[in-house]
Write a structure and sequence with these properties.
Rossmann fold, 5-stranded parallel sheet, 36% helix
Amino acid sequence: MEKLKSMINSDKENFSSIIYYDELVQVSPKAKAFHFWEFSKDLNISSVYRKGFLKFLTEHGFYRRVSSNGSWGLVKITNGVIEYVCKEDIVIYIKNYVESITKPLKIYYSRGRREYKVIESEQFANVFYKQFHLVINEAFLIALEFDNSQTLNDTKDSAYLLFKNTVVKVTEDNVTLSDYSEFDNLLVFESQIIDSDFEFNDEWKNCQFAQFVRNITNDDTNRKNALRSAIGYLIHGFNDPAKSQAVILYDEELTDKNTPKGGTGKGIIGQALSKIKKAFIQLDGKSLRLDSQFLFQRIKEDTRIIFIDDVAKNFDIDRLNSILTEGITIEEKFKKPVHIAKVNMPKFLIASNIILPFDGTTRTRRQFVIELSNHYSNKLSAGITEPILQEHKARFFSEEWSNSEWNGFYTFIVKSVQYYLANGLVPPPKLNMEINWLIQKIGKQAYYYFESIELQKGQERITKDIYEEFKKQILDDSYSQRLFSDNLKAYLKYKGMSSKFDKGKVLIE
């Protein structure tokens, strides 16, 4: 017996583990388990031990988590940080673990017997590759333990911006920097953590992003304040359903519906938000259908902002208003539909070259419109292909920014959140949105023609005469009188006048 003990002790350096079959967990009459492996009576590794596999996953931070919308997803928790994962992530994690086993395992029948077998490390990998599909699948992972730990969330009166080195708490009166140790009882989402250290930059008003904001608002105080409040609103993670609005970015410049210009900086605002909120979903507005049953399946508990970029002419703004008012139902393939209540909804940012319908109380109440100046688009028209680089000498959000520049940007965002908490959404001045809507509806040529003939209440005009005069100016034989009359009605309605067409004449009232 002493000789056997001596031999076992000398083997410890050469083997990953030394185990005894008679001391293992009995899982069937013909098999026992160690860790998450099953061994047969003849001491061969035979399969993956499922209960042990679930225990291993939990010990390594894998859980199921129920989000506020009622659905569940797979997460990994590491040092208080939650990250959403998928089945493929678990496969890769276990693969790396199994392949890290470089020493063989030695298994004895019992402590009193000399007979043993050596299980080479390659055998563990071989069993895993043969059987991982049996334990890493949705049906089996339903048995994974739940995690219901509280997370650090924004409140009505405060917001938290998480950096690698500090937690920035923002209220309307103060900005404080704290250590993560002060929040030991709360988890944070990995998507909340900005991949950078933060140091307050007192010169934040002079950073390049602040100059960008001045440029796209023509350095108008009211417009700057409106945009800053919109940025703060989108970053603030608390959602008050009664005040929920979609922030919509338009070009200030008058543009025809067939020749929208763009290039004013709408996309850069979206990029800026994505640098602060990694749980940021960008959707292609051109191909987007708000009635698609699987549209929002990417939304998770940590999703904060949905950016719909460059919406199509037929974008259903009323469907979006309904989502803001009532919440949404998420459908994923092969899963039960779940509803996200309006209080848990992400916030929406829309960039559009097309003016969306805005008439009616509901539409007006749910839209917060920001119009951007043509400061940068004019440079594009002048042949400058990269106006940001030409003016600011660096590409935004790239390695061309110094640490000071990044901290200036982050500080600008922090101050914008504080401005929003103090002032709410600050109404922007009305500029060209309504005129732009009309021009995109009837065309620039019709708009400027109607403006030139000075239509007024009480006038009676011969429709054919003004139509023929218009056709001489546009030189377009395909422009019908019916279309002309429809556009005239729309123009007069926009001007607050009505029209009656009778016997070739139009009476303006």
